[in-house]
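Because showing beats explaining, we let one protein speak, sequence and backbone structure tokens together, and leave readers to judge.
___
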Amino acid sequence: MRQAPVSLPLGIVIRRTPSANRWAKFAWQAVGVLPGAAQADWRVMREEEGAVEFHAATVPLELWHTDTEAYLTTLTARVPSIGVVMREAEDGDADRPYEVLLATASAYEFQDYADSGEELLELVPMPEGLVAFLRDFVEEHHEEETFVKRRRDKKRIDLVEDGRGDARISQISDVYRAPRTGRPN
């Protein structure tokens, strides 16, 4: 039976700043997370000197009992961070150009999204309370896997016959023979 994940609502804070790029009016960046936040839909939190911070969305941070190795990788990073995955909004609204797909504490899952290259990815530093919550979760559920060395079969591969190829691969005849043709000699 598969255990359900532990879920924590996580608000995503996105900052909009004037862009130095002439092709884009604004630069958008995920800059913070709010553990235990209520639902929000691009609510303005703060405005100062042209920069605006939005509580863009609240998504569940799911912690799976089987992913504790990935969470350990996250916790041992120089700055433990939450990976925020965003995608361009389909409606193309200039005030809400991105939709937040996911927030993850798994370094491995975040890397999978980085490999696709289709989403906008940001690493946001975890607040101390979230680091402690994740550390407690890992301590409770992590089971170290013992390394089991694979044993080779007992067949000796150092005995080689010239022209016969690898002894572990079955061959009908000499691997260096000329291929047969359908024509008579």
The mean pLDDT is 83.
